[in-house]
């Protein structure tokens, strides 16, 4: 039987901000965009105080302001959160190297072969993180990733939930289907139309019904997930598939020069990321979103991988030439490099 631990930091961006500015403590705090609710942008997160007013991730900042006019609005300071993310992941790596880094505020650990009990491991993690960052987290422990992730969300903030196979019937089945990783809004709609609202109701559907509605592999996935079955291993090292940067203009732009300059700047940033990871790339994709939200992409590829800024920029501009901008306003531009490969090191002889 495996022992998988999932950890998710509590109100992460907001907690980092509260830590460096104690005046925010116990006040409603909303993080998003440039921190100005009169400008365009969405809520990245809100602390638990602000959530009492109905503020949540993904909501326009303007709506958050209406719901909670007294909140403190702060811009997203991604670099600061990434630095804290590295700190808490170092605490996890001191427990075991079998860690899957899932995102800025969450990770899985495989603690199957650790001699310590769950309680001891959790104690080490929680105190270690608190000492280094001053932040709290919520932890779930279960026989697999699917259940561990559900568990970490069951008692937030600063929680610990252990789920075993015995808990599936009483604790998993009453939950709404969207709690299952891999069920998005569209599948939820589809299942609602079949009168399926809980994980338990999903578990009553025969496999062939699920396959008929969702195809062989996804149907099988739903069948297993409803029973708390998940064999997926931890992914401890991820090769990047692509690097990208995009930006939304504060006001929609018509001017070709402005668009071209922004693309050149985004290219520079992407090339920096690519180079600092030791990669080069074969494909450059340009993304343009117009003021009516219509979004197009254009790609250019080379036979040999390239990594120099002027090479990538040339590809990005060859994409731009294939976009008809006449009479249109641009809301967002993005540059992505794909088909990346580790750069071949030239060994030096002494
Ligand atoms: P979450 O773990 O989903 O949220 P949270 O840590 O703020 O709160 P909770 O206590 O419920 O875990 O996401 C982690 C961070 O990712 C969050 O602090 C901000 C960022 N984020 C976004 O930028 N946009 C989003 O839509 C979501 C959901 C999160
Ligand atoms: Mg979190």
């Amino acid at each position: 039987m495996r022992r998988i631990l999932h950890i998710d930091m509590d109100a992460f961006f907001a907690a980092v901000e509260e830590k460096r500015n104690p005046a925010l403590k116990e006040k409603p705090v909303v993080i998003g965009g440039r921190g100005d609710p009169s400008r365009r942008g969405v809520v990245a997160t809100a602390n638990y105080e602000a959530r009492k007013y109905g503020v949540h991730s993904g909501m326009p900042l303007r709506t958050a302001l209406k719901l909670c006019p007294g909140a403190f609005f702060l811009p997203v300071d991604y670099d600061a959160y990434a630095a804290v993310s590295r700190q808490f992941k170092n605490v996890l790596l001191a427990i075991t190297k079998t860690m899957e880094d899932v995102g800025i505020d969450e990770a899985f650990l495989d603690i199957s072969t650790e001699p310590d009990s769950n309680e001891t491991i959790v104690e080490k993690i929680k105190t270690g993180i608190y000492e280094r960052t001053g932040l709290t987290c919520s932890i779930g422990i279960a026989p697999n990733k699917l259940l561990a992730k559900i568990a970490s969300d069951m008692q937030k903030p600063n929680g610990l939930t252990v789920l075993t196979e015995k808990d599936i019937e009483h604790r998993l089945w009453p939950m709404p289907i969207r709690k299952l990783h891999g069920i998005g809004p569209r599948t939820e709609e589809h299942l609602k139309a079949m009168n399926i609202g809980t994980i338990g109701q999903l578990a009553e559907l025969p496999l062939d019904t699920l396959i008929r509605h969702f195809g062989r592999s996804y149907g099988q996935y739903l069948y297993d997930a409803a029973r708390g079955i998940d064999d997926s291993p931890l992914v401890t090292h991820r090769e990047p598939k692509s690097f990208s940067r995009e930006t939304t203009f504060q006001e929609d732009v018509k001017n070709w020069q402005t668009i071209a300059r922004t693309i050149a700047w985004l290219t520079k940033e992407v090339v920096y990321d690519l180079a600092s990871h030791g990669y080069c790339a074969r494909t450059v994709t340009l993304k343009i979103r117009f003021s009516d939200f219509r979004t197009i992409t254009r790609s250019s590829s080379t036979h040999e991988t390239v990594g120099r800024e002027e090479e990538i920029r040339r590809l990005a501009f060859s994409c731009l030439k294939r976009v008809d901008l006449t009479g249109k306003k641009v809301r967002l531009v993005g540059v992505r490099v794909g088909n990346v490969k580790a750069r071949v090191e030239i060994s030096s002889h002494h």
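Residues 256-276 form the longest helix (21 residues). The first strand starts at residue 4 and ends at 9.
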